[in-house]
Amino acid sequence: MEKLNEAEVERELADTPGWERAGDSIVRTAKFKDFKEAMEFVNRVAGVAEEANHHPDITIQWNTVTLTQSTHVAGGLTEHDFRLARRLNAL
């Protein structure tokens, strides 16, 4: 998988609402009513990530979940990251 150049990253970000650039990654944070609801979301993320065979880093802080997406083997962002991010937006 090929790493995107800066112009491609900006174009993909414009088509991926809710996600922000953080260095060589994109990040999205979501808040929920409580820990249980946050964990239910994480489990749905896990299902989509497994299906895509592409996995975000996930940080859970009680009712707040942060997803960080990057393609480590490419050394940055690829089309695969944005495709998965848009699928996760549907959750």
TrEMBL record:
Reactions performed catalytically: (4aS,6R)-4a-hydroxy-L-erythro-5,6,7,8-tetrahydrobiopterin = (6R)-L-erythro-6,7-dihydrobiopterin + H2O
Keyword set, alphabetical order: Lyase
GO BP of this protein: tetrahydrobiopterin biosynthetic process
Enzyme Commission number(s): 4.2.1.96
InterPro entries: PCD_sf, Pterin_deHydtase
SUPFAM superfamilies named in the record: PCD-like
Domain of life: Bacteria
One of the record's GO molecular function terms: 4-alpha-hydroxytetrahydrobiopterin dehydratase activity
Record keyword Lyase present: yes
Family note: Belongs to the pterin-4-alpha-carbinolamine dehydratase family.
Name of the protein in question: Putative pterin-4-alpha-carbinolamine dehydratase
Organism: Actinoallomurus bryophytorum
